[in-house]
Amino acid sequence: MAMTSQVAILGAGVMGETLLSGLLRAGRRPEELLITERRAERATELRERYGVDVVTNVDAAAKADTLVLVVKPQDMPDLLAEIAPVIQPSQTVVSLAAGITTGFIESRLPEGVAVVRVMPNTPALVDEGMAAISRGAHCDESHLVLAEGLLAATGRVIRVPEKQQDAVTAISGSGPAYIFFVVEAMIEAGVHMGLPRSTASELVVQTVVGSAKLLRETGEHPTVLRERVTSPGGTTAAAVRELEDHKVRAAFLSAIEAARNRSRALAAE
Ligand SMILES: NC(=O)C1=CN([C@@H]2O[C@H](COP(=O)(O)OP(=O)(O)OC[C@H]3O[C@@H](n4cnc5c(N)ncnc54)[C@H](OP(=O)(O)O)[C@@H]3O)[C@@H](O)[C@H]2O)C=CC1
Ligand SMILES: O=C(O)[C@@H]1CCC=N1
């Protein structure tokens, strides 16, 4: 079957839809994209919302020259078994699944298929994503450039050795959840002290956005920026003392190590 320049997104859940919408915002035409989705009502919803064709995994694997795998790690073995018979070495496979190694994917596909492993994150939905990409055994520069082109549609992209991907997953893949957790806690604190929820929410969200911008635009170390907020004998010093007493720094270290370990375990499952 003749190849087209189509990109197929296999598994259009949270992350698959995020990538799809980003590619469309970046100027890809709906005809250049295919998606697969096993629930009929979700398929209809996506077709109506984005104007892209929803096809079977086998059709996607037969038609598109780039296959982006965005199913849960646990669903990856079945998906690979389904598409392996139709994949050719001229196609590129880009996997966004946490924990799943390029070696695992290569071992279930025909010899020679180029596999790129990516760890994206959900701020890609607003074009502020952070993605890290790693090459599989059969990748050359052109495959990495192709993957960078896809991910750059929704934010920043860096290259990392694959052995760093579990740590990347723990930091930037899961990272937005930690920030939202902190935001939730700060809003709750505001409400606890009597602020209307909407006021607390506006104060916290703008503080997070402003702090992120300050980090990015000044390039200063976070410790320096924190010290500038911390007046001697003042309010911030009192708050930071509580955070240290409650071992919040150690809790972050443990939490992020747990995410890294879970990423490693997903590969073994
Ligand atoms: N969410 C995130 O922040 C991030 C996710 N990832 C990775 O992205 C992947 C997807 O995660 P996420 O989007 O959160 O999960 P979701 O459950 O939202 O999406 C997975 C989608 O794949 C569909 N699916 C499962 N099996 C098949 C199949 N055989 N054929 C077609 N579609 C299938 C599921 O359908 P159904 O609903 O019927 O189960 C679902 O719509 C994971 O591997 C995860 O590690 C990576 C970085 C960040
Ligand atoms: O929680 C997860 O497993 C996925 C991978 C990184 C973010 N979400």
UniProtKB/TrEMBL annotation:
The keyword Ribonucleoprotein does not apply. InterPro entries: 6-PGluconate_DH-like_C_sf (IPR008927), NAD(P)-bd_dom_sf (IPR036291), P5C_Rdtase_cat_N (IPR028939), P5CR-like_CS (IPR053790), P5CR_dimer (IPR029036), Pyrroline-COOH_reductase (IPR000304). It catalyses: L-proline + NAD(+) = (S)-1-pyrroline-5-carboxylate + NADH + 2 H(+); L-proline + NADP(+) = (S)-1-pyrroline-5-carboxylate + NADPH + 2 H(+). The keyword Cell inner membrane does not apply. Residues 162-266 form the Pyrroline-5-carboxylate reductase dimerisation domain. Belongs to the pyrroline-5-carboxylate reductase family. Catalyzes the reduction of 1-pyrroline-5-carboxylate (PCA) to L-proline. This is Pyrroline-5-carboxylate reductase.
